[in-house]
Amino acid sequence: MLLRTTNVSKQFNGVYALKDIDLEIEKGEVHGLVGENGAGKSTLIKILTGVYSLDQGDIYWNDQRVDITDPVESRKIGINVIHQDYVLIPAFNSVENVYLGSEYPKKNGRIDWKSMRKEVEVKAGELGIEIDLSKAAYELTPPQRTCLEIVRAMMTDCQLLILDEPTASLTDKEAEILFSIIGKLKERGTSILYVTHRMDEIFRLTDRVTIFKNGTKSGVVETNKIDKDGLIDLMTEKWKAQAISHSSAIGEVALEVKHLASRDGIVKDMSFQAHTGEILGIFGLGGSGRTELLECIYGYRAVKDGTITIKGKESRKRTPRNSIQEGMVLISEDRRGKAMIGGMSVRENITLSCMERYTKAGRFERKRESEAVRQQIDALQIRTTGTEQRAIELSGGNQQKVVFAKALMTGPNIFLCDEPTQAVDVKTRNEIHKLLRERADAGSAVVFVSSDLKEVLDVADNIQIMSRGRSKELLKNEGLTSNEVLACCYDK
Amino acid sequence: MKKTEIKKVAQVYGTVLAMLAIIIIFGILRPAAFLTVKNFINISRQMAALTVVSIGATMVMVVNEFDLSVGSMASLGGVMAALMAVAGVPVGLSFLLTILICMVIGLVNGFIVAKFRVLSFITTLGISTILDGLIYRLTGGATVFENIPPTFTWLGTAKIVGIPFLSIIMLIFVLVFAFFMTQTPAGRKMYAIGGGEEAAKIAGIAVGKYKILAFVLCAALASGTGIAVASRVGSANTSAGAGYFLQSYAAAYIGCTVSRQGIPNVAGTFVGAAILSILANGLTILQMPSYMQDIITGIIIVVAVIAQKLGRGDAK
Q1: Which residues of B touch A342 (CB under 8 A)?
Q2: Which residues touch A77 (CB under 8 Å, ≥6 apart)?
Q3: pLDDT at A83 over 80
Q4: Most B CBs within 10 Å: which of A321, A333, A355, as the mutation test of the B interface?
Q5: pLDDT on residue B48
Q6: 3-state helix, strand, coil in chain A (%, to 5)
Q7: Do A343 and B263 touch (CB under 8 A)?
């Protein structure tokens, strides 16, 4: 047994991110790891690579108990990870990148570039990887970069290679190259922990799969003894939408998106309609491009193709400013970076998008402004020492209420909400849900993105599935179960 | 009052207290020469140029950028106005044209920074070098002083009921720009950009436009400073503005310590410029060699930057 963990647990702020995880990986095995967003996959990877320390449990490596205290230690015993985001230095060439973090060979006191290059060529050759070694990393294609990282991992005596969503940025053809390398690694006896959302890859590549659910292990199976539905069953908590009180009927189309593609290629082909009176959930797995989609619609991210029609008016060149003027607001998922200005007061944050309203002859009327802000503070029950407290000093839930207050001040009727209840307390979360429902009932259209499927099922009238930047099924949220939604997401 | 509150008050008023302490020290050492109304009027005139250019630097700092071309811009302002006046352009018009031309240069600064999202540090360093070359082309490297009309020096030397006209202008500028930055939407938007550029963008603020505005205003104030200096001394030195670059940022950084959150602000910058000018004046009266003035000014700048960091609460 190459790796065995027993009862590994990790808590953050008193909440278990991982609980009693027993994981076993054999020598030369490709072991899949699946689970929903937030199931604990990343936490486990970080424990195995020494980024997090564990609270409880033991790790055995080749049947010896080990303490993985830091990333260097992890690499030393033979664990390497290849992340979703590359950790190559863009301006360095392949040889330099491969040797990052390891000792440069020297000859007569000078760096021996020749032998370094040869060594890299040999390692790459063994895996059948062809890369122009003198090219800088930024000149390489995404699969070439992944290959380069694998070569780097092989420079040390790597016995366990962890691949974290390695195909996320690859095309199908590019992924094939990666798969053939995985085959070669397996032949050489290197074990692989393959973490992915993509079911087809699990069935194609892995020998066994461990399934995580809410920080616990819900099963480990031999891949050829289970099918997709069986896996999804193990991954998801059975959750059925509560009956939503649709008080008003869904009205006309408020926002229509057709074949939208972002310039950065993350959103590829997205089409959907959001109606007045509707809360439309957009659900997709991590990396499906939900945030990017909303930012494109709002005019914050560059659009390459497609049309966005707001209340029957098509507009090509979008800016956040004209979105606000047209009555559309974005509640960004990145609260501290994009949704509020921490160093500014609650007052200044709330009136940020409409401050001109509180001026007379070009000068602020502080009294009138404070009065309007106080009304919002009361209406949303924001807990603050007053209008002048800095936003950064508030709790997460109250910060989010400030963000909502800022949006509401512009009198919007289309809401783009990206993880609006992220890192807020349960009470605020319910208040936000209630607020959005009230707005929908009053004739607004709400686009609701959350990585928490249960939440989407609780809140949305309809659910638009998004997968790898494309729109998939549109599901009516009546008696819908989490399994049915996920089955659409995992479908190839 | 809690301990943290006391600390905050000390942070805000500490800088003002430091200024008073400096005055008291010089007052004790040289009461006859330093502690006179005449000397303080003199200081107010000397600090006018620094204050005005520092307000410009402050506004660029507010939008989280840097303008390294303020020194060269000031030199160019003085040279251009003087050359125009010598060539027979009415003095008032020569001042106005100079400021307008420099505003266009500021527009270029701002446009490059906003449009191409490049480091303002490098952009304005490049522009600054171009301006230095331009000044040499205009003057051949020589100070402009021959045939300067007498009206040219009125701005820098006139007094109104015993108070230098420059000092009055300085006070007006401090009030106007402090008002602009704290009481108008444009000012608050600039602070919002500095506080969080992406959040400002999402809130619908035209980030590029206000960054450009900051650079344009900075250029206008820098060139105005150059004009004032040339007018005060009756000639335009090709590097008259060079010293103002570092001094203006020093004033602005000292000014940050006058704000609770350690952010740049016009009133604070005024205090900063006053501290630097009082120091220069006092040390001269004490007949300290100029290198000592450099050393002391340098120490104050470093201390101010550390104090500003501590004020923001993000120091390690």
Answers
A1: 195-196
A2: A61, A66, A68, A159
A3: no
A4: A355
A5: 96
A6: 35, 25, 35
A7: yes
* Nearest alpha carbon to residue B300 among B256, B264, B251: B251
Copy the structure tokens of residue A466: 């998004």
Higher pLDDT, A253 or B316: A253
Tell how strand A313-314 and strand A303-310 pair up.
Answer: antiparallel
- Decide which of 2.60.40, 1.10.3470, 1.10.30, 3.40.50 is the CATH code for B12-312: 1.10.3470
| DSSP characters over A93-161 | BHHHHHTTTSPPPEETTEE-HHHHHHHHHHHHHHTT----TTSBGGGS-HHHHHHHHHHHHHHS--SEE
Is the pLDDT at B1 greater than 70, yes or no?
Answer: no
Question: Could you tell me the domains of chain A?
Answer: 3-235 (3.40.50.300), 253-490 (3.40.50.300)
pLDDT, mean of residues B107-135: 95
B70 touches B188 (CB < 8 A): no
Average pLDDT of span B28-45 = 93
pLDDT band at A252 (very low <50, low <70, confident <90, very high): very high
Comparing B185 with A124, which gets the higher pLDDT? B185
Phi, psi of B238 (to 5 degrees): -70, -20
* CB-neighbour burial class of residue A434 (10 A; exposed 0-12, middle 13-18, buried 19+): exposed
Contact with chain A for residue B183, Cβ under 8 A: yes
Task: Decide if B199 and A338 are in contact by the 8 Å CB cutoff.
Answer: yes
Q: Please, what is the end-to-end C-alpha distance for chain B in angstroms? A: 25
The verdict on A348 touching B (C-beta cutoff 8 Å) is: yes
Please give the average per-residue pLDDT across B245-269, as a whole number: 90
| Portion 381-420 of A in contact with B at CB < 8 A | 390, 406
For residue B107, pLDDT over 80 is answered with yes
Instruction: Tell me the DSSP string of B148-194.
Output: --GGGGHHHH-EETTEEHHHHHHHHHHHHHHHHHHHSHHHHHHHHHH
What's the pLDDT band for A480 if we cut at 50, 70, 90?
A: confident
3-class DSSP state of B238? coil
Phi and psi dihedrals of A455, rounded to 5?
Answer: -65, -45
The 10s digit of each residue's pLDDT in B199-211 is 999 999 999 999 9
* pLDDT range class, residue A198, cuts 50, 70, 90: confident
Mean pLDDT value across residues A415-444: 90
Nearest CA in chain A to B179: A363
**What is the token pair recorded at A141?**
């294609």
Is the pLDDT at A184 greater than 80? The verdict is yes
Q: Is A298 on the interface with B (CB under 8 A)?
A: yes
Residue A323: closest CA among A312, A334, A310:
A310
The domain segmentation of chain B, as residue ranges, is 12-312
Report how far apart the first and last C-alpha atoms of chain A are (Å, whole number).
33
Where is average pLDDT lowest: A420-424, B207-211, B301-305, B308-312? B308-312
Residue with tokens 């819900």: A218
Contacts of A488 (CB under 8 A, 6+ apart): A465, A467, A472, A473, A475
List the single best residue of A325, A338, A385 to mutate versus B (max B Cβ within 10 A). A338
